[in-house]
Amino acid sequence: MVVTHGSLQRARGRCALTIGNFDGVHRGHRALVERVVSKARESNLTPCVLTFEPHPREYFAPKAAPARITRLRDKLELLAEAGVAHAHVARFDAAFATLSAEHFIDEVLERGLGTRWLLVGRDFRFGARRAGDFATLQGRGFGVEAMPDVQLDGERVSSSAVRAALASGELRTAERLLGHPYTISGRVAHGAKLGRGLGFPTANIVLRRPPPLAGIYVVQVDGLGRGVASVGRRPTVNPVPIPLLEVHLFDHDADLYGEHLCVRFLEKLRDEEKYEGLAALQAAIARDAHRAKEYFLKHG
Q: Among 16, 195, 213, 291, which one is most buried in terms of CB atoms within 10 A?
């Protein structure tokens, strides 16, 4: 997949496009992408996605913005797996936020991306003050289609529903809505090495933004095996302002600093707690590791 960022030059090709934040790339997003890929194949167009960084709600109200389900890198990888050939990541800043609906259509969709067919959700709004809607897109130099909501067991599939499931520790519900296990990926950073001193060395991944879940989890790390992980602020010792992902692998004790890990969350064990001293913390970690190993014995 070709990924472009920032300003757009005049498009050299023609595309079938869909637009959105695609946080989580859940089943609803995948239905959009599948339709775009199908239309592109049928019409000899490039299947394309337009997404934004940061999320518009992070720009307008950063303190009230929802937690990110997926990092940008993970989102782009999931879109590529779904068949997208070109993803353009538009920088959502003051200039972009003030684009009129007409300018967005003329300069971004038609001139910049070469849109010949566009698929959006029924409630899609765009342009300054959200002035543009589906009707605004009709009658332009491209075809336009509205995608109905995707439902699963009578529930609308949405990023909000995924976040709610993750926040409640309902990982199976989240996986059902996503269509894949929930993962967090990132590069292993140096830490205080407290876990090693307690007998439970961890690979630490710094999270730039608070994730939609917190607590202690059974995890599987791609290519490295099974383990137990904490997502939290470490209230007992060395607290951090933004949650940290700490992964203890059962069968891997090599130096992982600088490695990029993909951590799959399988089961929530408990919420994060503050303990009275390192001995109590060490005992809690031992219990968590034991419970995680029991999970794998039961589930294979």
A: 16
The amino acid sitting at 47 is P
For residue range 144-179, what is the model confidence (pLDDT) as tens digits? 999 998 999 888 999 999 999 999 999 999 999 999
| Alpha-helix runs per DSSP H in the chain | 27-43, 56-60, 72-81, 94-97, 101-103, 134-137, 159-167, 171-178, 194-197, 278-299
Q: In the chain, what's the furthest Cα-to-Cα distance?
A: 69
Cα–Cα distance list, 96 to 47, 126, 184 (Å): 23, 11, 29
pTM for this model (two decimals):
0.91
How do residues 105-115 score in pLDDT, each as one tens digit?
Answer: 999 999 999 99
Q: Could you tell me where the beta strands, DSSP code E, fall in the chain?
A: 2-5, 15-19, 46-53, 86-91, 115-121, 143-147, 151-152, 155-156, 183-189, 203-206, 215-221, 225-232, 244-249, 260-270
2 has which bridge partners? 86
Cis peptide preceding 239, ω within 30 of 0: no
Indicate the DSSP class of residue 129.
G
Measured CA to CA, the distance from residue 215 to residue 196 in angstroms comes to: 20
pLDDT tens digits, residue range 13-68? 999 999 999 999 999 999 999 999 999 999 999 999 999 999 888 888 888 889 99
Distance (Å, rounded) from C-alpha 122 to C-alpha 43?
Answer: 23
> Does domain 2-156 correspond to CATH entry 3.40.50.620?
yes
Q: β-strand 115-121 against 15-19: which pairing, if any?
A: parallel
- Does 193 score more than 80 pLDDT? no
Domain boundaries of the chain, sorted by first residue? 2-156, 182-299
Q: Which CATH superfamily is domain 182-299 in?
A: Riboflavin kinase-like (2.40.30.30)
